[in-house]
Amino acid sequence: MADATPSLLSSENGSSAARARRHWLIAAVAAVLAALLVIVAVMLTRSHRRPFLTLIGHGPGILSAVFSPDGKIVAAADEAGYTDLWNAATGKPIAAFRDPHGNAANAVAFSPDGKILAAGASGGYTYLWSTTGRLVRALHDPGPHNDYSAVAFSPDGKILAACDSGRTYEWSMATGRLITTLQDPGRQAFANAVAFSPDGKILATGDNNGRTDLWRTTTGRLIASIADPGHAAIISSVAFSPNGTILATGDGRDGSTYLWSTANDTKIATLPGPHGGVVNSVTFSPDGKTLAIVESIGYDGANGTTYLWSVTRHKRDAALTDPLGYDIATAAYSPDGAILATGDDLDLSLPNSTPARIYLWHVPGLH
């Protein structure tokens, strides 16, 4: 029995050493895994900061861009009057068609079935093109202000809304006839932006007096006007969340974006532009969790950046800066929300400048 005690102690010491080695090994493996996760996170973050595909346009400035409903085509309108179509997967050009009068193409939108592309132009025309480049119809407004700044299809594809400098027009897609003209008789404000609610019942228009008007689509009746009473603004862009509960309005004066409840027209939050620039575009991701806000800063709108904001946390999750350091005029999500397209606005009077470009960015999981 006298010899049993040292043997037992030796066994216990050995077990303690083995347990210590196991704990050390587990801690080491955990540290390595944590380091790998950090590296992967950094790589993913960096992948969001650089585009994976660049599409070259014709004109000096991309003013509007959009994905087709099936996500296979990217379309863009530019200052030279061209509407370009590219294969979204390869970047290969599909078609290019130009305003018959040579005016700038300011806005572009796909019909819900993807068969028609509407291009709002200077000169009072909105052109309806097939994706093969065939001009299907030309819509000409009767108003005195003739620079279309935004176009939008109703969710059912039956109505096309187009706003020019002073009015918003609703056109029948079946007949090509003007259905109604929307203008608040008490204000002579320029209309800059237009968007349908997801159910198609409401049309939102933003003007340069800082107000966003909500219209009944079927009757053309003004049902509400919303604005920040303590802030002078120019509403340059409007967008409904996919579930229709939030309306985002971008300020073309100081870079702020406002989120409004569509249930009671009250402001939910103000998303400040970090540089106090100009908001050119606001667009929700298809799942409604992220809002892409295009802000231009600096002289003549240079150094444009697209900020990706969490809609629920009201925090910026990422910033996508134009690779050439130029203005960004537009942003559009692919239907699956995995890709964001941004269009830059080059100034061809600058030395060594080139036609404007569309950049495609991977943006999955940024909520």
Short description:
The chain is mostly beta strands and 367 residues long. The chain has one helix spanning 4-49; strands at 53-56, 62-67, 73-78, 82-87, 93-98, 105-110, 116-121, 125-130, 135-140, 150-153, 159-163, 168-172, 178-182, 191-196, 202-207, 212-216, 222-226, 235-240, 246-251, 257-261, 267-271, 278-284, 290-296, 305-310, 316-321, 327-333, 339-345, 357-362.
Polypeptide structure, described:
With 367 residues, this protein is mainly beta. It has 1 helix and 28 strands. It has one helix at residues 4-49, and strands at 53-56, 62-67, 73-78, 82-87, 93-98, 105-110, 116-121, 125-130, 135-140, 150-153, 159-163, 168-172, 178-182, 191-196, 202-207, 212-216, 222-226, 235-240, 246-251, 257-261, 267-271, 278-284, 290-296, 305-310, 316-321, 327-333, 339-345, 357-362. The strands form 7 sheets. Strands 1-28-27-26 form a 4-stranded antiparallel beta sheet, covered by helices on one side. A 4-stranded antiparallel beta sheet has the order 2-3-4-5, with no helix packed on it. Strand 15 (202-207) and strand 16 (212-216) form a beta hairpin. The longest helix has 46 residues, at 4-49. The protein starts with a helix and ends in a 5-residue tail after the last strand. 44% of the residues are buried.
